[in-house]
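Task: complex structure prediction.
Instruction: return structure tokens for all chains below.
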Amino acid sequence: MYKTSLILSLSTLALLFNGCSTAGGAGMVGYNSNVKYGDAKAVETVTADFGSTDLQSTAESLTQSLLESRYISKAQQPPKVRLRTVNNLTYEHIDTKAITDKIRIKLLKSGQVRFLADTANLNQVNQERDLTTTATIKTTIKAISDSDYIITGNVRSIKKANDDVKDVYYNISLELVDPQSGEIVWADEKEIRKVTAKSSLGW
Amino acid sequence: MSHTKKVFISLLLGAVMSGCAPKDITIIGDKRVDILDHRTFKEGNFIKAVIDLENNDYDKIEGFVYRIEWFDKDGILKETTAWKPILIHKNQKIQIVEMCNLPDVTNYKIVVSVPEKL
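Output:
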């Protein structure tokens, strides 16, 4: 009787321990699934549409150009900049705010530029300020509303295709504008060409 | 020239050549692209790298990707650029210019990845 109960207890324990073990080891769930992490900065050529590689290379090259402009690099103190709309003039959906947000992060990291809240978020900033201050001072409003420069731009594309080849050309242009004078003090563009060769075999 | 002098010059040349070895370049895959020269200079607060590349093949266009890794004075990796695709036509040279947007970066490493030919 004692022997049987000992065997039963050991078997139950073995089953329990077996149930607790997970494939892949500590800190991993679903190790055997088809989901894998990839290189976020890898070149992506799944389709010819505007993709992550285009977003990253556009942000890097336009940030570099903007930091080289004398209105930023030679400024006495970091100018205050506000991002305005970058128009998507292509036929596909492109989140243009993703481009400007990425540029803003890079510029802020550089310490050469200060950014004001977007006009879309300005109401929230105003509400927060009204909550935290008992009396609204005019100079505070002025500090929030006055930008030295604004950034605007356009994304354009030209698509052409025949039976064998599809060609997409993207042009992303940005401008730095002095809102007081309306003068465009800096402008640059990033050009991207993507070519897809269609398979000669029909499926 | 005495034998001792020859040995000394050889050792000196060896040491100089070893110092010139491109430790800040990594080529992944086939070495079908030559990095002719790379140098940096300061652009305001930022470091700028200029890299000259050549496709010395007379027949083929080379397509590859590259990225720059930016390090601070302590050798800590501060930022990497995205992998960027680039084409060099046959027997052509190109120049890449990259600037880091972080002020405390002092050093860099070029990583070139050349795909295998099918």
